[in-house]
Predict the 3D structure of the following.
Amino acid sequence: MISLIFQRLIAALKRLGVDQFANKNKLLSVIPIPVAGAFITGLCLSVLFAACTANNASNTTPISANNSTQAKASVVRFGYQKAIILLKTKGVLEKRLQPEGKSIQWIEFPAGPQLLEAMNVGSIDFGQTGETPPIFAQAAGASIAYIAGIAANPPGQALLVPQNSPIKTIADLKGKKIAVQKASSAHYLLIQILEKAGLKYTDIQPVFLPPADARAAFVKGSIDGWAIWDPFFAAAEKSINARVLITGEGISKQGGYYLASRKFATENQETIKAILEEIKKLEDWSDKNRDEIAQTLSPVLGIDLDAMKKATQRRHFGVVPIDEALINIQQQVADKFYELKLLPKQINVKEAMLSPEQYAAFSPKR
């Protein structure tokens, strides 16, 4: 059994690029014999898990343990969702950072919570989410930092129901199964929608599903409603004939955030400044070239062109500097989740913010 464990451990160490101990005799030479069996078994489990994580964290080239130190200096690991794939498609960050000897590694996630889980374990440096995921990440002890805000996009998120559903008003949601990605911006939108109609969160049955699984459940008819954002929202309107019960208009007050690991944020301010400048340029360009964006993204995302045009036409573009007003709104979100006992502990969002001087060094101008 121990021999088999050694074989798997050595193979895992080599996959991670850790060659100095990828030898049975060397391992035994640094481990006291009485505890070798227990130690090695535990170490095997840890290393094998790390190897799996390294091999599956990205849809691009995995980062091994050997090059992780180098990656901090030369590679920005950027976590993204489909909603901002234009940034990846245009290649503007690569062009901007290449003269500085830096490159971008793009790692896709289905939603913000998964993205920030990866940031928490050190798999990515920078990324974008809605307003809710960083609150749950902070409550879980993640060492993250808010970098900049994203313009609110109320028309681009909604609560959908099947076309032939008997649900006609928000009040009709009582007792119904509503799919939503847990700890996402849509989760908070759902809470706000219910409160708008005088319903409690406990009046519905939340079904926590990522977007792809929620869509499948919606088509199958195993849920009654779906709280979701673009481009999934637009695609559902077009291809599965979903009916909009209500959008975020008049309800949603913020869009989301760009975030970074605190270590990356404090050690790479010039890089962050360059990233935000390129994002702002692209946002300004996008605001004036919506049809071109739709034509570019439709084949990349596999979404019907008409649906992509709809999502693009109603989107609000822009990067928003972190200020007291934004911090106060974000604190209200955190307090609401804690009040509903959905957040394990009360948090102070300011603890995940940087200093005013740091923001001044890289924040985009309005």
Q: What stands out?
A: Confidence is low (pLDDT under 50) at residues 1-73. Residues 286 and 292 are 8 Å apart (CA to CA). The two ends are 63 Å apart (CA to CA).
